[in-house]
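REQUEST ID: PR-0412
SUBMITTED BY: lab tech R.K.
PRIORITY: routine
TASK: structure prediction, single protein chain
INPUT:
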Amino acid sequence: EIEEVAENSGLMYPLDIGARGSSTIGGNIATNAGGNRVLRYGMTRDMVLGLEAVLADGTVVSSMNEMIKNNAGYDLKQLFIGTEGSLGVVTRAVLRLREQPRSQETLLVAVDRFEQLPELLKVMDGKLGGTLSAFEVMWNEFYCLVTTEPAQQKPPLDQTYPYYVLIEARGGDSETDRARLESALAEVFEAGLVRDAVLAENEAQRRELWAMRDDV
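STATUS: complete
OUTPUT:
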């Protein structure tokens, strides 16, 4: 619901998790959910400006701050975020929304060795100019589970590899962002960090790639 309301105003709630259709704001706050875009937007903690909670004895604790910068006194919201309701139940929250990206590019790459993953992340983050929003690593066992029958997803690559990474870049100009991603992909291929790759050509293909990550 919050995503729909935000989208109508040209904004977005940046938390993106597999259970997006059933999760609640209170649950996100209680678990300090991270989601797929934590690299770009941080944890739920980074999206909450203020909140209200009810303690076990019925006391209402309110810190409904609406400012990003506020160093006046105790920051009570930090005490409740991630405590899974053990200190109190969150009843209201002020959330930080972000501007909707004008472009989204999704790439799946195959990697041979686990040790290559940190270097791959470093290169992609450096080349994508601050647009990198997701870097989701999947083991081969997971990939095979979600791309072979009775799973509904079809394998996007012809061969299997030890590791796969879903990479997403969200920026402000589709042509520039696409060219930047293609240049970064060429560099990691040349460096031997990637064995194979598929770059989504449209929204349908982008959703198909992300469906693999969301299926489990």
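NOTES: The longest helix spans residues 174-190.
REVIEWED BY: pending
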